[in-house]
Amino acid sequence: MIVEYDGTNYAGWQRQANALAVQQVIEEALSRLTGAQVTIHGASRTDAGVHALGQSFHFDTESRIPGEKFSYALNTLLPPDIRIRASRVAEPDFHARFSTKGKRYRYLFYDDRHAGALNRLTHAHSIYPLDDRLMQAEANALVGTHDFAAFAASGSVVKDTVRTIWRADVTRQGHDVQLIVEGNGFLYNMVRIIAGTLRDIGSGKLAPGALRRAIETGDRLDLGVTAPAHGLTLMEVFYKDKE
Fold first, then answer.
1. How far apart are CA 115 and CA 8, in angstroms?
2. 190-202 and 132-139 helices cross at what angle (nearest 10)?
3. What is the number of other CB atoms lying within 10 angstroms of the CB of residue 35?
4. 10 contacts 22 by C-beta, under 8 angstroms
5. pLDDT-based confidence at 240, cuts 50/70/90?
6. What pLDDT does residue 56 have?
7. Does the residue 241 lie in any domain?
8. Closest CA to 82 of 19, 20, 15, 26
9. What does the pLDDT read at residue 99?
10. Same domain, 169 and 60
11. Any idea what the CATH number is for the domain that residue 44 is in?
């Protein structure tokens, strides 16, 4: 299944003991729909406040509901801030998380003297003008295969911090500044750290070259602050090689 959600009212994707998560809401709806306990497996564990247009998940079921009809049936049981965009029967060896080949993320900034009202849940506000051309020039340093150890949040525990970034594009439309990042994998908070660093460079708070220096040194202190969660959206999960 492909699911879209507004993460504002949820403590992230993953089910938690003391807070409401997107996974819990979908599992409870699926269990009601199928009449059996259902556990779903998501492609990405998005944080509290992070949105998704193309999160994916899978589950096993003995239900006779046709795969392509699950989306219609399930949407009648879900709240309006969670919507199943598509559903189908997967191959027996498919796994929403372990079969992934890569992901696309989007981060949105709004640079104006005053924060917006209509975009307050989807854009991070910058009171300072952002130099999107400089941000793009800096983002180019991300493309390729690098050790991104400096780009992981404190407390992140992974053995391998090498990732490949295929695309890092910064574009502007009016006061909206958009960052699109695609890669074969991302460390915990990696995209938000990239976005926050680019914002600090684009606003003149941080000297250019920070991303390249951090890749070389592996030092988190070379980077800017972590951007707020609500500006981030998981756009798509890839299950085929980019080529």
1. 17
2. 140
3. 10
4. yes
5. confident
6. 97
7. no
8. 26
9. 95
10. no
11. 3.30.70.580
Instruction: Report the run of H or E that residue 2 belongs to, with start and end.
Output: strand 2-5
Structural domains counted in the chain: 2
Q: Based on the domain organization, do 47 and 120 belong to the same domain? A: no
Give tens-digit pLDDT for 65-104: 999 999 999 999 999 999 999 999 999 999 999 999 999 9
Please state the φ and ψ torsions of residue 104, each to the nearest 5 degrees. Answer: -120, 130
Catalytic residues: 47
Domain stop point among 56, 86, 116: 86
Report if residue 36 sits inside a domain.
yes
Q: Are 4 and 54 in contact (CB under 8 A)?
A: yes
Q: Give residue 41's domain range.
A: 2-86
In a domain? residue 62: yes
Buried-exposed string 89-116: b where 16+ CB fall within 10 A, e elsewhere: ebeeeeebeebbebbbbbbbbbbeeeee
C-beta of residue 166 within 8 angstroms of C-beta of residue 151: no
Tell me the torsion sign for CA atoms 221, 233, 2, 84. Answer: positive
Residue 243 above 70 pLDDT?
no
- CA terminus-to-terminus distance, the chain: 23
Whether residue 82 is contained in a domain is answered as yes
Pair (54, 143) in one structural domain: no
Does 122 lie in the same domain as 43? no
Instruction: Please check the confidence at residue 141 and state whether its pLDDT lies above 70.
Output: yes
pTM reported for the whole predicted model: 0.95
What is the per-residue DSSP string for 159-225?
Answer: S--EEEEEEEEEEEETTEEEEEEEES---TTHHHHHHHHHHHHHTTSS-TTHHHHHHHH--GGGS-P
Residue with tokens 């372990």: 98
Residue 138: pLDDT band with limits 50, 70, 90? very high
